[in-house]
Write a structure and sequence with these properties.
single chain; about 500 residues; alpha/beta; Aldehyde Dehydrogenase, Chain A, domain 1; 2 domains; 7-stranded mixed sheet; 15 helices; about 35% helix; about 20% strand; globular; Ald_DH/histidinol_DH
Amino acid sequence: MTTCYQLYIGGAWRDATGGATFPAINPVNQQAWADLPQANAEDVDAAVSAAREAFDGGWKDTNGLTRATLMQRLAELLESDAERMAQLETTDNGKVIRETRVQMRFAARNYRYFAGWADKLQGDSIPLDRAELVDFTTREPRGVAALITSWNSPMAILANKLAPALAAGCTVVIKPSEMASVTTLAFAELSERAGFPPGVINVVTGDGSVGAALTAHSGIDLISFTGGTATGKAISRIAAEHLTPVTLELGGKSANIVFADADLKQAVTGAVAGIFAAAGQTCIAGSRLLVQRDIYDQVVAQVCERARVIRVGDPRDESTEMGPVATKAQHRRVLDFIDRARTQGAKLAAGGGVPQGDVYGRGYFVEPTVFSDVASDSELAQEEVFGPVLAIIPFETEEQAIAIANGTAYGLVAGLWTQNLARAHRVARQLQVGGVWVNTYRTNAAQAPFGGVKASGTGRERGLHALDEYLEIKNLMIDLSNEARDPFAIRT
């Protein structure tokens, strides 16, 4: 039996204009389990109008304490409903239940963290050359933000955007991926229960035409997008028509670099977690494992040994370590990458296909796959697979490792495994990425800024820096002298 959902616009639940719907598909068995509204441009316009009315009608002037109180209440509701929300997300995108539980609580942590900033958005007093001039700044909300999220971690990604937006005093229109929309609509129910005024949070669902209508809308003051680089570029082009600011969290081809002096047990665990957790469907996946030649054979053997015993299965099963990839199209894409890598000179060291068994034949499963001796300029080393496929690349020197790590279009994150603290600092400074982990991987914190450079995007999420994406700086200068002046004189 499928559950039917509605759009959430202006504090009201409503069907999409025209009544069109589309199914949510469970990647474990390819069965439809929810019915979702397919919005159109008219629905998008209604949502943007509702957000504008809420912003101008009082939300932008709501004091920080009130916003913080609502955000804390939302965090409490998300924490108390974490199990149900985790089950919904696991059913929607195939991520193992142990991870979606953690992600619900991490999302709640983000709302709590930014709630703490909501009443602390002070400006600066700026001393000028002339004593009779008083100058200061204020930080004011940008307005209506379009928040567009991906299918791999809908609630975690949304928290990265919505928490600072609410703290800053913005209103929002959320457009989740059509591949995983259920938890976003369920979350809208929590925001309603938390007491947010109508129109502060709006949700429209549907295919890419909904996102296109939203990003092209003249009533949008800011766009924050998480997803593929090609889509990010398209959004930037559309936003340029209105000079709309854009924050982009895009793809990655992250290097996990293991030096010969690393703690190998720790490094191998980090390498396995970096690529096979979430079935490799994360922008921060350590999909390139760079290993110093002295320990190369040893690390390859240990990584393959670990990959072969990963428990692949139903993500709702507590013992499962890796579930399916989320969609039919992604399943085909990953398998095609594997097939091409086999013909392009890489050595298949583990996995390489669909797991055997009836349960796997009904879903979008892929074996944890390892290729060794991968050329650093090959497709597998350059392009984002977004699946459980690891490319292991040997290197000789520190300088070579840095060159290989920087030798892609992407620049999201990187990992370093070494016991040499001086090396860690030295290499980290030279890596063209937005973040570096040393002797850990896929470790996140609400306080730590996250984002990339190059083709991995622009702007930052999480941490204090994320607030700047949703705030404008206004400068106020006051002349206290009461002196008559020459109207044509230059004043400094």
